[in-house]
Design brief:
185 residues; Topoisomerase I, Chain A, domain 4; two-stranded antiparallel sheet; 6 strands
Length: 185
């Protein structure tokens, strides 16, 4: 029964780290990625649809993204959706495809992006600590119901703390590597 609590704790903390890594993809690093357009949706025949579902979205080089819609009549809708998404660039529509030209990042922009990564990491750490609290509450409930002894309660709380410490450490190392990626010119 305690092993179930440990397993569930680890699984939930792993989900927090996966969420953190997905959040990192929205940050701009030295080279542009198509994930900056992940939140962009267009009205596709009455349904709000992800941009990558109505055309191909490709990173041509380190500073350019091309959006090639499968239906040319969607060009203006895609252009408006990108402008409304406020991603920091204006779309260039040539009648066939839409190109997004991202200027190289300045040192200040890199620092802002690194700060954003730190905020995301801190949020993930809070989530990990909330999972620890939830797991400790489950263990205390088992103790209250006399399903485990005082010694088992103490050992369980120590084990949950060890699991928490390892995931907080993983979040910190993920942040360090992301900061290095962002700040490297």
């Amino acid at each position: 029964m305690l092993n179930e609590v440990y397993t569930e704790t680890k699984e939930n903390m792993e989900k927090s780290l996966e969420s953190l890594k997905r959040d990192y993809k929205t940050l701009r690093t030295g080279k542009v990625t198509v994930s900056v357009l992940d939140g962009v949706k267009i009205d596709y025949y009455g349904t709000m649809t992800d941009l990558n579902q109505v055309g191909s979205v490709l990173a041509i080089d380190a500073t350019t993204i091309a959006v090639n819609p499968w239906e040319k009549n969607l060009l203006s809708d895609i252009e408006k959706a990108i402008q409304n998404a406020n991603i920091g660039v204006n779309p260039n529509n040539d009648g066939e495809i839409i190109k997004l030209f991202f200027p190289p990042m300045t040192v200040d922009q890199r620092k802002v992006s690194a700060k954003g990564a730190k905020v995301m990491t801190d949020t993930a750490k809070v989530a990990i600590r909330n999972i620890r609290k939830s797991s400790n509450d489950k263990v205390k409930a088992l103790h209250k119901d006399k399903e485990i002894t005082d010694d088992e309660l103490k050992r369980a709380q120590d084990e949950i703390q060890k699991i928490t410490d390892s995931f907080v450490s993983l979040a910190d190392s993920t942040l360090r590597s992301k900061e290095q990626e962002i700040l490297t010119v």
